[in-house]
Design brief:
The protein is of the alpha+beta class. It has six helices and four strands; from the N terminus they run ααααβαβαββ. The chain has a four-stranded mixed sheet. The termini are far apart.
Amino acid sequence: MSYEDCYSDLLAQGESDGEDPVFDLGKGKKNKVAHSFMFQKGEETKLMREINTQSKEASRRRNRKKKHNKIWCTFTGADMIEERKVFSKEHRDGEAGEIRTFTYSSSEEEKAANDFIAKYHEVKVTHDFDNQKVMEDIDNERYYGNTEYKFLLKCPTPERLAKLTTQMKFRMQEGNGEAFYCIGVKDNGEAVGISQELMETSLRTVQQMACNLKIEIKILSVSKGRKGEIVKLMVN
């Protein structure tokens, strides 16, 4: 079959050049190129949206970390000042230091605090504290998470108690309603431990914090540090 015959057959399939299959083939190539270009353009737009979303999320994380670091530094600074005040030279040498006296708004609140201290002594006996080996150091305290280290907590002023309570609430939010406290441990994870007298004072403070938030508090363990006791608590 000659070229003319083939071309005539193709023209017979349409009434005009606009419907001519020969011209349609040319249009198809152009459409294919245009489709490819639009696909690439769409992929670029999608990629840019993903990059922008990731950038915004990273920015939110940085701002959240800055805010928490500011709060954390405030609490850490207050703890260091408190530690220096309570652990005077006389106290480091083993003599009793001056500690504020707790005051309670009701007899029920005082009874709850006394019962909590009694439970601490009970757990101490149950865990055979006197025959324990010295606890090893643990990991550094993290900015985020639901675990808080407190070397010691003296009887707080109302302002200090409010700040400590806010910090406990934050730790619970990080743990979806559950948080852990390690008393007698420094921020760097050093398992030093404190005396029984200071531990009782620290536990009464934590109990007041939990009472303010109307949450449960439980003593998980009483361990031996290099220079005293270490207590792990759970609040929920």
